[in-house]
Write a structure and sequence with these properties.
Shape: globular
Number of domains: 1
CATH architecture: 4-Layer Sandwich
CATH topology: Purple Acid Phosphatase, chain A, domain 2
Number of strands: 9
Largest sheet: 5 strands, mixed
Number of helices: 8
CATH superfamily: Metallo-dependent phosphatases
Strand order of the largest sheet: 3-4-5-7-6
Structural class: alpha/beta
Strand content: 15-25%
């Protein structure tokens, strides 16, 4: 059984998605899955949705996709400060206004999770967690949180995103794989991040792949589109 690539959290940023898919093609990986959050924060919602749809990549919805597809004004994101909440609301309003009906219809039809096999390993893909689409599974959460999730995950490898910070660790016999983010990393590395899973004797062998793209150019597009300037800055800083 050949390797699998999982991309997630593209957030309407087309160039890193194209770069990630080009790298996946270079590696000869034919099976690609997407963990959602196709839109939000970035300037290319329709182009991203169209590329995912045209490539026929099996995809689940993220919290942002769920909201925009249903014309909701709350994306389900957690904001630390009122300033962050106000910035987030600007993104929601911009994305609602600039996402076309075809893209909304595509996102509305996406499932909550996907399951597939890698050799004899059962893999489950969710956006936030198996419990909730917008649950943040940060690496520093207590082990008991992950052990409870592992007990009900019904898989050998649980793949997810949402935090935009990649990490890999085993809890309760389940391998947890956070893929990071293709279009909006938050781990200090502005390169697009995605996961590659390969079959192994005992479990899936996983590593995080990084690819470069012109983040400065997209930052200029973000500003020109009328999105908050801070989003442009964060693309370059990956903070």
């Amino acid at each position: 059984m050949s390797a699998v690539a999982v991309i997630t959290d593209i957030h309407a940023n087309l160039p890193p998605l194209e770069a990630a898919l080009e790298r996946i093609d270079e590696l000869g990986i034919e099976r690609v899955y997407c963990g959602g959050d196709l839109v939000g924060y970035g300037p290319h919602p329709n182009e991203v949705c169209a590329l995912i749809e045209d490539r026929q990549i099996p995809t689940i919805y993220g919290n942002y996709d769920y909201a925009i597809a249903r014309h909701l004004e709350d994306c389900g994101c957690a904001y630390v400060t009122q300033h962050d909440r106000e910035l987030g609301q600007q993104s929601v309003e911009w994305t609602l206004a600039h996402t076309d009906q075809r893209s909304k219809d595509f996102m509305r039809g996406l499932p909550f999770d996907l399951r597939f096999e890698l050799a004899d390993h059962r893999v489950r893909l969710v956006h936030g967690s198996p419990r909730k689409v917008n649950e943040y599974l940060f690496e520093d959460k207590p082990a008991r949180t992950f052990e409870r999730i592992a007990a009900g995950a019904d898989c050998d490898t649980l793949v997810f995103g949402h935090t935009h910070q990649p990490w890999i660790r085993e809890y309760g016999g389940v391998l947890f794989v956070n893929c990071g983010s293709v279009g909006k990393p938050k781990d200090g590395d502005p390169r697009a991040a995605f996961a590659i899973l390969e079959p192994d004797a005992d479990r899936a062998a996983v590593h995080i792949e990084r690819v470069e793209y012109d983040a400065q150019r997209v930052a200029r597009e973000v500003a020109a589109a009328g999105l908050p300037e801070e989003y442009a800055e964060k693309l370059v800083q990956a903070a």
